[in-house]
Amino acid sequence: MSNFDDLFEANSRPEMEEKNFDKDAWAEKKQAERDEVYALADETTKEVSTDGERFKAFLDVKARLIHYTATNTLLVLAPKPMATQLKEFDAWKDMGASIRKEETHIKILEPGSSYERADGSIGTGFNVKHVFDISQTTAKPRQRPNAVRDDRQLIAALIHRSPVQIQGVDELPNSMGALYDREQDVIFVRRGMEAHDIFRSLSKELAHAELAYTTPDYNRQDAAFAAYSVSYVVCKRYGIDVSGWTDDQILEVYGGVGQLLLHVTTTAIIEIAEDGQTAKGFWYSPGMIAESGSSANSIWEAYGCDFVKEDGEWKMWHLHMYTDFMCQFGENFTSGSGSGAGSAFTSRPRMCRSCLHTAWRRRCSSSAARCWSWAFSGGISSGPPTPRAFSCLS
């Protein structure tokens, strides 16, 4: 095998000081850049979760950049909400385009090398990638002819990809256009509707069906926000009118208007293993869930948490919530008339909102951004969560 090291030796100059590559400094710089990107994703997540117009802009970007993750969609939304086509510097150069002066790159995340977690599972690290939108370059957007989309073909495509049976009916409750019935595992579609109304209604119920298949503790009320969001993105991408979906409707579906969630936690009982590397925690949460003009429920839940120690720091590993009982205010909790799980008493474990926002957080994305990922992927399917720092045991 040829050795070309002598070329570098011959090119060296006596008057130049020999430089040493500082691996630690390079790693520190890259970590700082990743932290900056994570912070931007967190900040943008807060914006889209409290502002209906901003959230709709997030969905619009997602519809244009359909293959981007939820986190990268947030990272594009922040600096360039109208982005349509993203490439790296060299990719634009290969196309004969140059970056316009004073344009700043957009930072997104791409998968890097794998690593082994403390529990032996394999995780994936993420690196920062610099891209530019076509509007930041000298490239001319291609004038694509307006696609003539046949309504019948669009609806047929939805039906073809359906995981459940679809059946036409003459009437549905509350004038609904379509309804996913989980017990019968079928989507009923009201006959006689216009094509776009069928597409909007059917896409939303298809999202419900997918979520029911991929979410262990699916219920229609909790899945409404995800299904609504998926339907909006699909309609937007394929040219279906979404002008009737207002910002207020989005926030109402999300549950951000007139909703009270109060979970008071008792003092935790934490048992640390003999090796001092893992621990288990348990605590109760008597609380309430109420929605303006809808319902108000008392709820008692038990939290169970696994902790793991990494590099001398305690971190949350798994967090689960178990509902003991839930019933409407003013009713006997032993009557079994609760409005939550169908009966007052239940021992069925389910993942809670806190779990999505804390224990299931990955270093590669913001906490709430994982909720958007959940909405578009139908659930977290990428394996065990990355442990997150937890200060109580420090």
Unreliable stretches (pLDDT < 50, length at least 5) are 336-394
Strand and helix order: HHHHEHEEHEEEHHHEEEEEEHHE
β-strand number: 13
Average pLDDT taken over every residue: 77
Number of domains: 3
Q: Do you know the CATH topology of the largest domain?
A: Nuclear Transport Factor 2, Chain: A
Percentage of residues in DSSP E strands: 15-25%
Structural class computed from helices and strand pairing: alpha+beta
Distance between termini? 54 Å
Structural description of this entry:
This protein is an alpha+beta fold. The chain folds into three domains: 23-136, no CATH class; 151-238, Zincin-like (2-Layer Sandwich), CATH 3.30.2010; 259-393, Nuclear Transport Factor 2, Chain: A (Roll). It contains eleven helices and 13 strands. The strands form three sheets. Strands 7, 8, 9, 10, 11, 12 and 13 form a seven-stranded antiparallel sheet that branches. Strands 1-3-2 form a three-stranded antiparallel sheet. It has a three-stranded mixed sheet with strand order 4-6-5, covered by helices on one side. A hairpin with a 5-residue loop joins strand 2 (106-116) and strand 3. Helix 2 (23-50) crosses helix 3 and helix 6 (151-160) runs parallel beside helix 7. The longest helix is centred in the first third of the chain and has 28 residues, at 23-50. Residues 336-394 have low confidence and may be disordered.
